[in-house]
User: What shape does this take?
Amino acid sequence: MNDRFAAGVATVGCLLLVAVAMRNRGVGGDDGDRTEAVRAALRGGTARNVILFIGDGMGDSEITAARNYAVGPGGRLALDTLPLTGAYTTYSVDERNPELPDFVTDSAASGTAWATGHKTSNGRISTSPGDDRDLPTILELAQRRGYRTGNVTTAELTDATPAVLAAHVANRSCQGPADMERCPQDRKSAGGPGSIAEQLIDHGVDVLMGGGYARFDQTTDAGPIALQQAIAAGYRIVTAASGLEYAQPGRRLLGLFAPGNMTIEWRGDEALPYPSNVRTPQVCKEDQRPVNEPSLAEMTAKAIALLATTGDGPGFFLQVEGASIDKQDHAANPCGQIGETIAFDRAVRIGLDFATDHRDTLIIVTADHGHTSQIVGTPTDADHPTGLISTLRTRSGAPMTLSYGTNRFHRAQDHTGTQVRIAAQGPQAANVVGVIDQTDVFRILDRALATPRRRSDQ
Ligand SMILES: [Zn+2]
Assistant: This one.
């Protein structure tokens, strides 16, 4: 079973074949008994490589909507094929009373939870609620243990999810040296560690790729812009997809492919109050990303190529974020949201393909929090959601209506407090099964990265 799984993921672009195979399961010779497959997937010990995929705002509803649209409800995405799955709770805590839960987290507090193993209040980047202590991150621990590290996103590199791994500031808004209004104590001129951009560079993360060029183009307290600081620290700066081919292992890479967030993959009309487009469903416009920006899958493949080692000793820790699932959900834009989920799934497939040949790799695929979109029945004059809706003509031709109801028209939609899926394969993957908490991910990663295996153990 495991071999068949591995062979399946090794076939690039086989989404539809996987879909057909999965639909036929239970109809043909496969009786659906997965006992042996699950048993074979249980592996303790340590991992030579770890890839953590975070779909920002990718709750069960967002996954289901993308699956329905792209491969149909009986199909399976790459992220559906990991052998071990559980759920985790994502709540944050109150800034003044950390004993008190805040049921709806943001990406900063949730990221701090999985990156450090500690709950914090919304807005904080790997610092504790109230007393503002720096919390050690899994990337810092991995570096200390000799692992190479990478941090990839479709958002600004200084956005919350990539930031939590290699920065400690009181507020997520302190992204560049000119953005320090809410973190005066963190300024370098005040004896602090500096903005998120400066800290990403000072941490010496081997591979950094995403958007946010403008944050690194700001003047630091010491005088030069942050980009000059990066060059002095040995980084190769790349600002277009075509430049990636020149990036070679052995030199740090800072890829900044957009001034702000990177361009989304698909476009379409935003959701509107009923009747919206219920009678004329929209078809998403795919392939809208400009060629000078790499896809998340391309960045993931390049990051792995730069980080993977061939000799003995530790491998790498890589975080890959599909950031704009969340941002398009905020915008009540179903095509944008689904396109980003599919792009994220393609990046997951790159990771799974790598793991096929490198079984000592722990892969975790999860989200940081739930979000707004809900799949609802066909709205009618007599019966329809009060929020915003949009109906899509899925690739199968069947209509699917998404509803966005966590805020008013013309206002950004909000996160929700639901538990979200976590799936894994490789060493330590068994620990995602059941209902765990987001902070447990730190402990899973910590154990997986505890004692690097020798090459001969593979
Ligand atoms: Zn968000």
